[in-house]
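call fold target=Serine hydroxymethyltransferase
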Amino acid sequence: MHEPAIPHLRDGDPEIAGLVEAEARRQFEKIRLIASENYVSPAVLEATGSVLTNKYSEGYAGRRYYEGQQNIDPVELLAIDRAKALFGAEHANVQPYSGSPANLAVYLAFLEPGDTVMGLSLPMGGHLTHGWTVSATGKWFRPVRYEVRADTGRVDMDQVRDLALNERPKVIWCGGTAIPRTIDFPAFAEIAREVGAVLVADVAHIAGLIAGGAHPSPVGHAEVVTTTTHKTLRGPRGAMILSTGEHAKAIDRAVFPGLQGGPHDHTTAAIAVALKEAAAPEFARYARQIVANARALAAALLERGYDLVSGGTDNHLVLIDLTNKGVPGKPAAQALDRAGIELNYNAVPFDPRTPFDPSGLRLGTAAITTRGLTEERMPQIAGWIDEAVQAAAKQDEAALGRVAGQVRDMLAAHPMPGWAPTP
């Protein structure tokens, strides 16, 4: 049973309705540990599915190219005001369609083709759009990549400074997609000032933790902050760019008309709803619980002999190196999915295997925390992960099926926002 209900979809397109129903049940019955996923509230779902999807609103509030914006402008202004208040930013642009377009807007705002940009190497936990080879950002600009230390799994700030001094990038990125430790925004800011670079913090994974006070904020250190609005922030699939007032015009021009036309007004409304939810006191408790769960899960995995990159976590994310378990990340992830535990295979720093068949697993605790799971459940989940990894090595499908049944039984007592089994 959906909340909001989907009777018209069932009547008009039962094939799609059936797939939506199947996906909802899958999300209900599996331990969702993909670090970039979460469950949104019914209010966010309602805003996303509202009649605002009918409107086209090219331009910015008060400066549109289409009429009929009497209700759209207030929606976008609410989202902007709530973003600025929640993160303490001077400026916010809530129109980017997703995280990668938001990051591309940064390039358009500050760089010319061929200019030097510096970011964390993708195999070390960085993002494609921070200058990696297969991305437009690595093809159109001159990328310089820093790494983590082999002995600690943490960003080598001495290397960052040396590279910055030698290469003189115009933009330095901090943040990424597989960083289990606190990002040292003040240290990055000091280096950026020293070389005259614009510091951009990509906090897509940790925005909710920042909003809830469970991770330090880059605002006041980075001149520009990009983020998606789902993941730990628990909003719709969208993005935002925060900046100092000095860079507001450059950012806005880069988003529109530089990269895109009309914003997705239904998404903007859902972002506004999620930002209001994130400003509530209970969201701070939620953010702290995400971190507590991740640390408890990391500790339980360490007790079972798993090798964790950096030895643990400070945030929502745990990165496992399976080398000592005798099974690569891809077959392990696929086996875990069959066991009712959803995560993704992932490269680990200095991985000898290919990105399509890497050595690691990446997992996060935002979604299971939304379901109400706490630290007490983490040893049990670690045990199931261990059982499934061992079953993958032995190709023991019966063991995977047994774990999947136990997972379903456990999750039945933890409601999922937006859907519940029909009584």
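return ok
The mean pLDDT is 97. The chain has two domains: 47-278, 291-411.
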